Amino acid sequence: MSWYKRVKEGITTLTSEKKSVPDGLWHKCFRCKKAILSSDHEANSYVCSHCNYHDKIGSREYFTILFDEGKFEELFSNIKPSDPLEFVDTKAYKDRLEDTIQKTGLDDALRVGVGMLSETPLVIACMDFGFIGGSMGSVMGERIARAIDFSRENKIPLLIISKSGGARMMEAAFSLMQMAKTSAKLALLDRAGVPFISLLTDPTTGGVTASFAMLGDLNIAEPEALIGFAGPRIIRETIGKDLPKGFQSSEFLLEHGFIDMIVPRSALKSKLSQILHLLAEKQITPKNKSEASA
Amino acid sequence: MAYFDFEKPIQDLEEQLKKVKEVAEKGKVNVSASIKELEQKIIETKKSLYKNLNGWQRVQISRHPDRPYTLDYIENCFENFIELHGDRNVKDDKAIVGGFATFNGETVMVIGHQKGRNTKQRQFRNFGMPNPEGYRKALRLMKLAQKFNKPIITLIDTPGASPGLDAEERGQGEAIAKNLMEMSMLRVPIICIIIGEGASGGALGIGVGDRVMMMENTWYSVISPESCSSILWRSWEHKEKAADALKLTAEDMLKNKLIDGVIPEPLGGAHENPIESYQIFKSEVIKLLNELKKLSPKKLIDTRIQKFSSMGSFIEN
Questions:
Q1: Full-prediction pTM beyond 0.90?
Q2: Candidate from B171, B232, B311 with C-beta closest to A90
Q3: Other CB atoms within 10 A of residue A241 CB
Q4: CB within 8 A of A151, min separation 6: which ones?
Q5: How many CA atoms within 13 Å lie on the side-chain side of B88?
Q6: Cβ distance of A187 and B169 shorter than 8 Å
Q7: What is the distance in angstroms between the Cα of B168 and the nearest Cα belonging to chain A?
Q8: For a FRET experiment, which of A175, A192, A234, B263 has its CA 20 to 30 Å from that of A285?
Q9: Given pLDDT bands bounded at 50, 70 and 90, which one contains residue B188?
C-alpha cells in the first residue's frame, strides 16, 4: 500500500547547495501579520492582498504608481529646512533634522513633482510620513504654495497627497502660518479655475486637515484612513470615554459629507485619470484604458 | 486679589501697605510718608517685574480670570452692538459672538471668541472653544460685512477649537480651512487682535487679517505650552520650557514677522486697569482702521495674501 510507502524523495538538496532567502523578499502585513512576496506587494500598490490594508507609503511610491512610466520632474527641491527658533525639546531640532535627513534620504516631509498621468499633465505634492510624522513646517508650506502657483501659472491641475500628523511643533507659529499661506494660495487657484484634488491618506490630522487637505474641489480618501482635526487620543482624554468604532475613518467622513469618494489604491490612477479627463477644458479620452488602470 | 507666583514681591509689599494703612486708621501715628514710600516701591517693583516677563508668565496673565473678554471690549469700546446668531445650518455657537456695532462713529462687524467668568458661564461658552458652527457663523457674518462694505474686527481669545465628537462629525477641520481661504479674499479691511489666548487653528480660524495685532500680555502659537510639553516631553511638567521654546509672546511674534504689531497694556496687565486698556485698544484700532480705509479692495487682498505668503523660514539654494 502506497499509504506506507514513500513515493517521493525527501529534501535532496545538499546543505552546501542551500540557497539563502534574501532580506526583504517577504513583506509582513502591519495589520493581519500575514506574509506576502514583496514583489507581489509592490505590484499590488502596497496593499495587503489578504486584508486590504493600505500600507503607509511615501512620495517615491506614489510618484511611481501615478506618473506614467514613473517619470516626472521634481520641483522646488532647492528649498531646505532651517531652525528659526533654535528649538530644543528632548533633542535639538537641528539634530533631529540632520538625523532624519540621514535616515530617510529625504530633505523634508513633502516633495513636488510634475509629469503626466494617463497622458494628462499633473502636479503632485506628496507627503512623506517618515519625515517627522509628515509634519508641516515652513518647507512643506512653501513647497505647496509654489506648487499651487506653478499649477495656476501653467494651468495644470494639482493633486496634494496628505499623510501627516499636522503642524510641526518645532517651528511653532511659523508652521501655524503655513495653514494661512497655503489656503490663501488655494483661493487664487480657485479663482483661476484650475482643478485641485485633495487625496487624504492614513493619517491626515491637525493643521493639514484644517487647511488645504479639506479644500479640494474634490476630496478623495484612501479606505480606512484616519482623518480628523483633533487626534483620537486628545478627544478620548477630553470626553473621558472610548471613541465609537470607525470614528474619524474615511468611511465616517464620507457618511458625514466631507469627502466625495473613497478610492482603493489599486483604482487610484484610473479614477484620477477619469476625473482629470472629465475636468479638462477639451475632453480627451485616454487611448489605452487598461494602461490607465494599471 | 489673586497673585501669580512670580508676583510674590508685589504681594508682600501690598500686604505690608495694608498693615500700615490699618495702623493709620487707628489714627495714633502719622504714617503718610511710609505709605507714599510703599506705594512708590510697589509701582517700581511692578515695572521691573513686568518688563522682564518670560513666556510662561505671559501665558498666565493671558488667562487671568479678570481679564477683559470680547463682550467687555464690545461693551466698552463699541456702541449699538446688535448680536447676530447662528450659522444657518445646525446651531448657534456660544464660544464665538459677533454682530454689527458702531465704532468711532462708523459701522463695523465685530466678532470674537467668548469665555465665561464662572463655572456655569464657562460651560455655556464651552471655555471659549468653538465648534465648527462657530467658525461658520463667523464666516457668515464676515460675508455680511463684505456685502455692506463694513470693516471687520475680530477678537481672538481661545485655548483652541473644541476637540469633541460633535466637532469632528460636523467637520472642524473643514470649517477652519474654509475660513482661512475665504478670509484671504474678503474685500473689506480686517483687523484681528489677540486679546488673550491664541491657540493654533482655533485662533487662526478668525485670524487672517490685514493687521494682526497682539495685546502685550497674550500668547499666540501652534499649540498650548501644556500640550506641547505633553507631546514632545511626554509629560505636563515642562510647560515653562515649552512656553519659552515656542516663542509665543507678542514680542517674539513681532520679531519673527508673524504679526503686525503689539498693543500695550496698563502696568500689571489689562485686568489691572480695564478702563485704560479700553482706551489704548480704541485709539490703536482707530489708527489701524484709518490706515486700511485708504486702500482699495484689490490692494487689501493682494497685500494680505502677500503678507501670509511671505511667512516661513527656510533655506533656498
A1: yes
A2: B232
A3: 9
A4: A123, A157, A158, A189, A194, A196
A5: 8
A6: no
A7: 6
A8: A192
A9: very high
Spatial separation of the C-alpha atoms in residues A186 and A181, rounded to whole Å: 9
pLDDT at B135 (0 to 100): 98
Of B176, B221, B315, the CB nearest to A172: B221
Grid cell at residue A47 = 496593499
Task: Please state, in angstroms and rounded to a whole number, the distance separating the CA atoms of residues B173 and A206.
Answer: 8
Closest CB from B163, B173, B245 relative to A234: B163
The pLDDT of B213-242, averaged and rounded, is 94
Instruction: Work out the average pLDDT over A3-14.
Output: 75
Q: Please answer yes or no on whether A176 and B177 come within 8 Å at the CB atom.
A: no
Where do we find the cell 520632474?
A73
ipTM at complex level: 0.94
- Residue B139 grid cell: 464666516
Q: How far apart are CA A203 and CA A224, in angstroms?
A: 10
Strands (E), chain A: 26-28, 35-37, 72-75, 79-81, 110-117, 120-127, 158-164, 196-204, 218-221, 261-262
pLDDT tens digits, A189-198 = 999 999 999 9
pLDDT tens digit sequence for A113-157: 999 999 999 999 999 999 999 999 999 999 999 999 999 999 999
Cβ–Cβ < 8 Å for B273, B266: yes
Q: What is the CA radius of gyration of chain A?
A: 22
Set of chain A residues whose Cβ sits within 8 Å of the Cβ of B304? 184
**Is residue A31 scored above 90 in pLDDT?**
yes
What are the pLDDT digits (tens) for B159-171? 999 999 999 999 9
| CATH fold for domain B59-309 | 2-enoyl-CoA Hydratase; Chain A, domain 1 (3.90.226)
How far is B42 from chain A, CA to nearest CA, in Å?
35
List the single residue in B227, B233, B312 with the smallest CB-CB distance to A178: B312
Q: Please, what are the domains in chain A?
A: 2-19+57-293 (3.90.226.10)
For A48-115, what is the HEC assignment? CCCCCCECCCCHHHHHHHHCHHHCEEEECCCEEECCCCCCECCCEHHHHHHHHHHHHCCCCCEEEEEE
B150 to chain A, closest Cα gap in Å? 21
Of A173, A184, A191, the CB nearest to B258: A173
Flag whether pLDDT at A251 surpasses 70: yes
Residue in chain A lying closest to B240 (CA): A89
Residue ranges covered by each domain of chain B: 5-52, 59-309
Contacts of A229 in chain B (CB under 8 A): 161, 163, 167-168, 172-173, 176, 201
**B208 to A215: CB separation less than 8 angstroms, yes or no:** no
10 Å Cβ neighbour count for A255? 12
Per-residue pLDDT reduced to its tens digit, A41-61: 999 999 999 999 999 999 999
pLDDT tens, residue by residue, A208-231? 999 999 999 999 999 999 999 999
At position B4, the amino acid (one-letter code) is F
